[in-house]
Amino acid sequence: MAEKLREDFAPPQADVEAAALAMEAFARSHSSDGRRVVLITSGGTKVPLESRTVRFLDNFSSGRRGAASAEYFLRAGYAVIFLHRHRSMYPYSRRYSAINWLDALRLLPATAPGQGEPRVEAEQRHLPGIVQVLQDYHSMRESGRLLPIEFNTLSDYLHLLLAAARALNPLGSSAMFYLAAAVSDFYIPASEMPEHKIQSSSGPLQITMKMVPKMLSPLVKDWAPKAFVISFKLETNPQILIERAHKALDTYRHQVVVANILDTLRTCVVIVTSNDEANLSITNEEDRSGVEIEEKIIEDLTLRHKHFIEQSDSN
Ligand code: 9Z3
Hints:
Layout: H1 2-8, H2 16-32, E1 37-42, E2 47-48, E3 56-57, H3 64-75, E4 79-85, H4 101-104, E5 105-108, E6 119-122, H5 130-143, E7 146-151, H6 154-168, E8 175-179, E9 186-187, E10 210-211, H7 216-223, E11 228-235, H8 238-252, E12 256-261, E13 268-272, E14 277-281, H9 284-288, H10 293-314
Parallel strand pairs: 1-4, 1-8, 4-7, 8-11, 11-12
Antiparallel strand pairs: 2-3, 5-6, 9-10, 12-13, 13-14
Helix pairs in contact: 2-6, 3-10
Bound molecules: ligand 9Z3.
Ligand 9Z3 binds next to helix 3 and strand 11.
């Protein structure tokens, strides 16, 4: 697979070697402290249409699922590798991703005329829940249990996922993969990509894209065969969702698919395994009081992970 990535994709922009070393050290240190480690992938991917890229194919994913999930995994005691798309939502700060910071900050005059710089103060009414969020953020920073790794392109993502799998493989069943990123299914191989900007004067655009190799297959079979692996399935048609989730489990033989529908992805998901389906949802009242579906997803999955480890240990 590493060779196929080298042949078909432009070289990654990310420093994959440095990230691989950081992930290995992080995994080793937390696992020797007896902690479980989860790799979360988060955000969409950008697929270039030209080598000197002006245009690219993107998708809707904001990274909110991954960023919120990271917080709940940290709360549950996990160490988290957060493999996310550059500028997609980030744990804790995600809550303020839609605010205009300049409205939330106030300039205060220097304490005495002519002395020092004016000071800046935050207005809490623009930052709901900020005290709790800051406390959680700083306690997470001190614990050293979050390792953020960024990707930009599809090629970055694929190389970094391989590196992450190698870093987590030695942890066996105590490693979890939580693959929430919305990864493109299609790409143009480096050898077939035009170098320069596609000219509109040439008329309507027709492009043929290849299928992105399914990383789930080598991940489960070869790279981290003892790990607890969760993939996500997104559909727009509820009629086919559960059947597609079972098909993914049959094909890749991993442990769980979290199935969601685009229109309801913040309020309902189905946790699908080869022998059960559990519906998780947020009531209107829970929604009003700020309960998030990710809290329920992580509560469910951490319990399943615990059972998975116990079963693996007894075999
Ligand atoms: C998901 O289904 C995630 O839940 C979302 C989260 C991307 C919908 P946001 O980032 O959205 O919070 O805005 N992720 C996986 C989607 C996906 O592309 N799955 C593929 C498929 O369904 C490959 S397993 O075929």
